[in-house]
Please model this.
Amino acid sequence: MTTDKPSTLEEEYFVREDAERIRKLHYDELRRMAQSEREALRALHKGRCAECGAQLVPELVGEVKIQHCPNCGGTFLDKRAWQYLQSHAEPHSVMNAILNWFKSANKP
Ligand SMILES: [Zn+2]
Model:
């Protein structure tokens, strides 16, 4: 995953296309996997960084609990943390835009 900001409309288009393709793969995988496979994956990856696999460290940032990776510097926000940010975000802020994206990305 990259965190580079797309610089052109064309790049933004391809980033969105990639996200949509990967989202479809995710749902295909969920349909294909047995419950036992999903539970085995969860047990293997729970509390681990999605980028480097290191053990995540829970940290309290204000009133939000985040999971921080001391190895690569990545951060994971669970659904509860996102919901907190969503309910406390300033209107028209960059965070609001991110939260709006998150809301639409997590619709079934
Ligand atoms: Zn990491």
Q: What stands out?
A: The pocket of zinc ion is lined by residues 49, 51-52, 54, 69, 71-72, 74 (CB under 6 Å). The two ends are 22 Å apart (CA to CA). Residues 45 and 96 are 29 Å apart (CA to CA). The chain has one domain: 9-105.
